[in-house]
Write a structure and sequence with these properties.
With 460 residues, the protein is mainly alpha-helical. Helices cover 75% and strands 0% of the residues. It has 20 helices and no strands. The longest helix is centred in the middle third of the chain and has 34 residues. About 8% of the residues have low confidence.
Amino acid sequence: MNLALYRFYEEYSGANILIALAIMFVAGFLLSRITKLCRLPNVTGYILAGILIGPFLLDLIPHTIIDNMSFLSDLALGFIAFSVGKFFKKDVLKRSGKKVLIITLMESLLAGALVTIFVGLIFPDLGWNFALLLGAIATATAPASTLMTIKQYDAKGELVDVLLQVVALDDVVCLLCFTLISAIVEGTSQNGVQVETILLPIAYNLLLIFLGFIFGFLLSLFIRHRSSNSKLIFAVALIALLAGIGILLDVSPLLACMVFGAIYCNVSHDEKLFKYVDHFTPPLMLLFFVLSGMNMDFSSFMTIGIVGVLYFVIRLLGKYFGAYLGVLMVKGEKSTRNYLGLALAPQAGVAIGLAFLGERILPASMGGTFLSIILTSSVLYEMAGPALAKLALFKSGAITLSKKEIKKIDESDKQLPAVIYMLPLVEETKIEETKHEESQDWRHRSSYSSYLLARKAHKK
C-alpha cells in the first residue's frame, strides 16, 4: 500500500520539510497512544510509526528528506550521552565501589562477547566487522521499563540497589566499547590494517573528549547566575557544537557529550539543567525514533529475522549469566545473583543511536540490515522487558506487597493504561514529596491512588 503522497508537495522546497515533520510528529504521537493501551513504551510507538509512514509501507515522506536527516541521530545521541554524564558524580562513584563495577563489566562484556562470537561464526558472510559492532551495541541496556516496574510495585532490596547503579554505568561501558571498536573497524575497512588508519580515529575521539571536558568547565562558569532559559540555550548550543564537530571528524560525539555532562555536574553541582534538557528533547527524540523506523530495511527480511532472533536470545543469555557471575564474584545475595540479569533485558535509546552510526560505518549493502536488526530486537526487548523485570523483582523478594495488593495494582493499571508511568520527569520530585507527606508506608497504596495524588501535585 504505497501512497507516495509526498509527490503532491515534494516540489515545494521548504514546505516539503515542514509537511514531512508534521506527518512524523502526528504519526509518532498517535502510534504512541496506541502502544500505551498495550502497556508498551513510547519508543515502540515511535518506531512503529516510522515503519508505517516509511518507504516500505505508506511511503508518506520524500526519500531525499529521509536521507538528509541523518544528523538527527548524532544530535539525539549527544543529548542522551549528556544526560548519562549526570550519573558520574563523585559521591555516587565512591559509594558504588568496585562491586558494582565488577558486576557491570561482567554482564555487559559477556553479552557483547557472546553476540560477537556467535554472529561471527554462524553468519560468516556478514563479516567480523559486522559482528564486532553488533557485539558492542549488545552491551547497552535501556532501564526505563525496568525502573517503571520498580516504581509501580515500590520494590526495595539489594537487587534494586544494585540494579539502579549498574544501569547507570552500563551505557558508559557500551559507549567506550563502541568508540574503540568503531575506530578499529573504520581503520581496517579502508586499505587493510594500517596503524595510522586505526590511530587517527582514536586521536579524533580524544580531541573531541578534551573539548567536552573544556565545555563542561565553560558552561559551569558562564551560566552560574543565569536564568533557566539561558542555561538551556547554552547547553543545547554546546551539545550541538560537539555533535557537529563529531560529524566533521567522522567520529561519534558520545563520549565527548558524556564527559561534558559529567564535568558540568561535578563542577557546578547543578542537576536542574539536566531536567531542563530532558524537557527540551521529547520532540527531538520522537523525530529520531520515527526516523529510525523509516530507515528499517525489509528487503533482506529473512536475514534480519534469523540474525535478529539470535541476537535477541544470545544477548539475553549473556546479560543473565554475566550478572550471575558478577554477583557471585562480589559475594552478593543469592536472590540478586539469580534474578538481576532478567531485569537488564530492555534495550532502546543508546543502542538505536549507535546502530545509526554503525550503519554509516558498514558497507551500504550491510548497513540497512544492521540497523534493522537492532530496531527489531529493541521493540521485542521493550515488549518483554516489563514482564521479565516484574518476574525478577517478585522472585527476588524485592516486591513485598501481598498477592491481593499486586492484583489490585494490576487491575487499576488496566483501567489507567501506563499513564501513571508516563508523567513528565519534572513531576517526579513532587510525586515523591506527596508520597512522603501522605503516608510512611506508601507501598500499601493502590496504583490508582498514586495516580490521583500525582495529578494533584502536578496541578499545584
